[in-house]
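Lecture notes, structural biology module. Today: joint structure prediction for complexes of four components.
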Amino acid sequence: MARNTGQKDAVRRVMKAAKRPLNPQEVLERALADIPGMGIATVYRHLKSLNETGWLVCVDLPGEGTRFELASIAHHHHFKCDTCERVFDVPGCAQDVEGLAPDGFVVDRHEVLLFGVCPDCSTP
Amino acid sequence: MARNTGQKDAVRRVMKAAKRPLNPQEVLERALADIPGMGIATVYRHLKSLNETGWLVCVDLPGEGTRFELASIAHHHHFKCDTCERVFDVPGCAQDVEGLAPDGFVVDRHEVLLFGVCPDCSTP
DNA sequence: GTGGATGCAAACTCTTTGCACCTTG
DNA sequence: CAAGGTGCAAAGAGTTTGCATCCAC
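The predicted structure, tokenised, for the full assembly:
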């Protein structure tokens, strides 16, 4: 996937514009505005290659497929609303998270997921 | 799933004996020792109902299917070894994790995942 | 005896892959 | 023009469901 094509540009544009992690289906829906007729397989192929080059990172949440977001955004975590199912970025990081591991475990990465109700859903 | 059957007992026994989160396939393999001929669908059905009653909780990790473990064990988190792929329980919890959420978000649950190398894999 | 539980196989969902055709460089 | 990218459809993996049969109560 080294060649520059309209499809690849569309995926990059969609991911840059996203304010939250997107799944392949959401990426396709947004990319279709630029490239009518684009196929889901092409989305998967580009997400995979952009992830392998380190431009995108995976965001996995319980009970749903993999989402992706830009690798370049600052260290942060995620909040999933139990009501509307949307996923939000949460800036910052708890202290001492990696210190939790028992002696002998070497931690080089961590992920924090919060679950609850987002502002939109808690004030009807 | 309110009736007491050998299959249900087998799933409960397997889960109680497990020292780490198990996926449905692992549960079936262990249950087959007690109930030869048991089907994977029955495992899924019992895992689902035991989860709905709150006896089991889901443990989702990036890049793999859902695992389950007893809900009764103390609040803890998980460590996945990038080398041997095993998943370990990590006792305790970081301070202020739920305080990360921006104003307006109501947090009622959280999950922390650590990734790195376990003691077995770091001392060859 | 009766309704819930089970095993099997088919259905479903999500993701990947094979292939003929099209596009970029 | 050649190498690589694309869309479609089929193939896979994991999970759920329909149904006839079986078993706990």
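Point to remember: Residues 3-5, 24-25, 40-41, 44-45, 48, 65-66 of chain A lie near DNA strand C (CB under 10 Å from a C1').
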